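wait is this the right file?? whatever heres the structure
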């Protein structure tokens, strides 16, 4: 559960790490469920026997599955008092740096880069997020993520 901060406190966090999520395990069940949802059944994701013969040595999570886990991770970051809705606005940059082998644990590290007022009651945030793989030096993903937050009247 995230802590709640005022808008002023949140804006004062620009340039700082605002949090690190819990670890999430990339199980084969999670990977298979994502494959079914997206209809991406490439063998490197869903066929352990064939994937074992690749340079990965095992199945790996879809890059988009890793990216999608940001939704769960961000709920553990500070929330802003008075926000009634938040939406994903996109990515300026995103790179899948390293594969995520089945059984790995990943977590997100969030740095708040910018908060801009779009119009009264609406802000846009730019956050650099790094998805770390437990026990690995190189991250799975690095992204510059844009979000919009809307305040109630």
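ok assuming it is, sequence goes like this
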């Amino acid at each position: 559960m995230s802590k709640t901060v005022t808008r002023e406190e949140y804006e004062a966090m620009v340039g700082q790490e605002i949090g690190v999520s819990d670890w999430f395990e990339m199980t084969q069940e999670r990977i298979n469920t994502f494959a079914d949802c997206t209809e991406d059944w490439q063998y490197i994701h869903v066929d352990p026997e064939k994937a074992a013969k690749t340079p990965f040595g095992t199945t790996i999570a879809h890059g988009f599955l890793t990216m999608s886990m940001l939704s769960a991770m961000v709920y553990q970051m500070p929330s802003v008092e008075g926000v009634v809705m938040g939406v994903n606005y996109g990515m300026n940059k995103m790179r899948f740096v390293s594969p995520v082998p089945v059984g790995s644990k990943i977590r997100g590290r969030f740095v708040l880069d910018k908060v801009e007022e779009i119009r009264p009651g609406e802000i846009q945030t730019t956050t650099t997020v790094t998805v770390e793989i437990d026990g690995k030096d190189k991250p799975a993903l690095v992204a510059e993520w844009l979000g919009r937050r809307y305040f109630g009247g």
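The chain is about 25% helix and 40% strand. so i think its the right one actually
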